[in-house]
Every structure is written in structure tokens, then in C-alpha cells.
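This protein record is not my work; I was only asked to verify it. Where you disagree with what is written, explain briefly why. This is what I was given:
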Amino acid sequence: MVDRSFADLSLAALYDILNPWGPGDEFYLGFVMRADAVLDVGCGTGQLLRRAHGAGHRGRLVGLDPAAAMLVQARRRADAVEWVLGDLRTRQWAGEFDLVVMTGHVFEVLVCDEELRAALESVRGALRPGGRFVFETRNPKARAWEGWTPERVREVTGPEGCAVRVWNEVERPVLSDRVTFTETYDSDIWKRPRVSRTTLRFLGPDNLNRFLHAAGFTVVEQYGDWERAPLTPTASEIITVAGARP
């Protein structure tokens, strides 16, 4: 889940603990290892690109993130990845990449139509003809947000060795395809909890594909989970592989 509160250095240090390597990362790693030049939009702590470099990728790897604290974590590892502070509005590339990825449901933070169109145009511009854009967004029909309740508290051990508790609360009513919620972090060693408020957009496959087509993409494949199961109405994810049209 994307959480803009990770602009905080102490919370950024928790990110990899809260988001350990999993099947989705393995899915993306396969694409990264087959591409010569890769841009990871919303790279966070850079876990994917660091893993690719460690696995022998010797092409160009670029991680883009708007949170300086996240890139502080990424830069603590000595590798050849380019870490870039910014987003698709402030950083532009022209036909430099074979692959652009958005992992961790980053795509859902593109809430407004104008913002979404501009981001897709930037991704298309960054890709060489025939390049791939791979990302995932939650299927709105699965209604994942219904499980984001204060009763579901997750507890992890932070870098200082103390417990950190995390929980979510959705603002009601949920309107259209946008979900606004708070995410609270609390620990006995902190003076007060830290709370972030985020709005995410859950596009269904038909609307999503219309935006992609208008931006110059062709949908090559879509899956409903990380095992590449077919995209069905009740699938939890919409995992998309899109090709850049010439």
C-alpha cells in the first residue's frame, strides 16, 4: 500500500519491514532482469532495483521517488542504481527505457483524470517504441478497503527493537472510485502516534484500459493475481503489461 507518510525518516526505515519481499516482487523482477534499461516509478527504498542489481543486472536501473527519506534508505546500499528525487511531473525522459514499472499499488495515487493522463504520457514518453509498462492496481470489485479497519492492527519490530503498531480507517461514505483513509503508526517509544491521510483511486479494467489506449499503449496481458491467473470480476488485482505503440 502506498503511504505518503514515509516522507518521515523514521517511518521510511520501517518500510521494508512492513513490506517484505513477496510474490509481486518476484513477478516484477522477472521483467526487470529481461530489460536493458528500467525506470521504477515510486521506487520507495529501492528494494526491487537493488535485488535486480544483486542478481546480476548490468544495464541501467533508475529509481524515481518523491520522498527524500525513502531515497535515503535506498542510497545506504552501495550499488550502481541511479536514485532520482521527484515524480513524473518534475522528471522527464525521452525514449530511454525498455521497461517502466509501478509497484506497490503506486498507480492508485493518480487520483484525478488530468494527473493520470499526464503520468501515462510521461511513461509513454520515457519508453522506447515497443517498450513495456508493467503495474498493478486493486480490482475495485474486490473492495479491499472494507478490510481497512482500526480493529485490524498490524505489529512489527522497528529498527530500534521496539514494537510499532499500524492500522487503517476508511472515511465513509466511499464515493465513486476514490477511497480516502487514514493510516496510524504508534509505538511506546514515541510521544504521539503519526497519522497520514491518503486518497486512492480504484479504476475498473474498462476505464483503466481506455486511459492506457488514449496515452498510446496497447494492453498485452492482464492478470488477476501474481500467479498469472486470468483477470476475473472477483480477482483481487488488475496486473497489467502494456506495450508502447510506435
